[in-house]
Amino acid sequence: MEKSITRAVSRRLNDLFTYAGATSLLLIKTVFWAFTPPFKIRQILLQMQKVGVESLPIVFLTSFFTGMVLALQSAYQMQRISAQIYIASLVALSMTRELGPVLTGLVVAGRVGASITAELGTMKVTEQIDALETLAANPIKYLVVPRFMALLIMLPLLTLYADCIGIFGGYIIGVFKLHLSPSIYMNMTINPLQLKDVFTGLFKSAIFAAIIVIIGCYEGFRTEGGAEGVGRSTTVSVVTAFILIIAADCLFTALFYFIGR
Amino acid sequence: MIEVINLNKSFKDNKVLNNLNLTIESGITSVIIGRSGCGKSVLLKHIIGILKPNSGQVIIDGQDVTKLLPKELNKLRLNFGMVFQGAALFDSMTIYENVGFNLIEHTDMDSQTIAKRVKEALALVGLSGIENLRPAELSGGMRKRVGLARAICVRPKIILYDEPTTGVDPIMADAVNDLIKNLHDKLQVTSIVVTHDMVSAYKVGSKISMLYEGRIIETGTPEQIKNTHNPVVKQFVTGAAEGPITAQNKIVNEV
Fold it and tell me: Which one of A132, B90, B179, B241 has the fewest CB atoms closer than 10 angstroms to its CB?
C-alpha cells in the first residue's frame, strides 16, 4: 500500500517536472528564435489582429460589467459609513492592480489559448507540422514566435483598455446610480492612482501572455489522436493556463506587496 | 544513394523498426510495401530527419541524417520533396502560398519568378488557375495533387510519397500513379513510395521492398515480387485473408 502510494506520488512528481522542463525549454527556444532574424513582421501583425484586436469586444464586456459590479458591491458597504466617494478610488485601484490584468488574462486564455491549441493541434494531427519541417521551416520560429510576440504586445494593451473600461463602468454606477459628482468621481479615481499601480498590472499581464502562448503551443504540439485529441489538448491547455495565471498572479502580487512596503 | 543501416525505433514498448537495412538507388522509383501501421511512414520520416532513431544510420550522399545539426538538416531538406498521406496543406494559406512555400521562405526569388514556378508545378499536376483558392475549397484528389506540386516546386532530387493513392477513388489513384511515373521520367528524381496499394506499387515501382515486423524481408523488381516464394510477401501481394501474417496475429490475439 505504502509502496503504491510512493510510486504514484513519484510518478506525479516526475510528470510535473517533465512538464515544467518541457514548457521552460519551449519558452527558451521561443525567446531565442524571437531574436534570430529573419523577423516575421507580417505574421506578428496578423496574430496581433487575431489575438488582440478581435479580443476587444469580449474584454470590453467583461471589464465594463466588472467595474459596474465592483462599484455596486463597494457601495453596499461604503454607504453604511457614508464613504461612497471612496468607491471611485477602490474601483480604480482594484481594476489597475488586480482585476484588469487577471480578468483580461483569463478571458484571453479562454479565447486565444484555446484557439492556439486547437489550431496547432489540428496542424499536428493532419501532419502540417511535419510538413513544415520537411520544408525546412522551424515550427517554433514559424508558429510559436509570431503568437508569442503578438500576445506579449497585445495583452498589456488589452489590460490597459480593460482598466479604462472597468473604471468607466464604475463611473456609470457612481454618477448615475449613486449620484456622485462627476468631477469629484474623476478626481478620486485619478488622485490615488500611481504609475506603479498601472505598471505592476501591465507587468503581470506580460507574464500571463507568456503563460497563455507557451502552454497553448506546447499542448498543441503534443496533440495526438485526431479530433478527440484536439479537444482533450484544448481543455488541458485552457485549464492549465487558468491555474498558472492565478498562481502567477498570487506570486507577483505578494512580491510587489513586499517590495512596495 | 540512400542507405538505411541497422535502424531501430520504438515508441514506448512498441518496437516499430527493428534493425532495418535498406538501400535506395538513385534515379529510380523504389516502393516500400507493408501492412497499415507496420512502420512505413516512420521509415520515411527517418529518411527526411523528422524522427530520430533509437539507433542506426540513414546515409544520404555520404551524410548521416541522424547526426546532422538542425541547420545542416534544413539545408539537406531543400533537396527533398515530401507528399503526405492527407496532403498536409497549410489551411491558413492559399494554394499559391502552399506550393511556393519553400521558394518564398528560403530563396531570394522575386514574386514574378515564384509565381511562374508555382504555375509550372501546378500545370505539371494538371491543376492550373487555382493559385488563389484555399485547401478547404479543393477535393481530396486535388489536395493530393497540390501536395505533389508543393513537393516538386523546389525541383528536389528526392521525392518521398506517403500513401499517395490512399483515400482517392480508383480513377484518381491511377491518375496519381501516372503523375508519379511522368514526374520521374521528366525530372529524373529518386522517388520513394510507401504504399499498401499493390496496383500502385506494380505500376510506379522499379524496385519493391516489403517491410514486415520492423525489417525489410524482401526486395525485388515488380516481376520478382509478383512471383515470390516468400509466404509472407505472397500473402500480402495477393491480399489473401489466410496466411502466415494473419496466422501470427491470431496466435498473438489468443495469447
Answer: B241
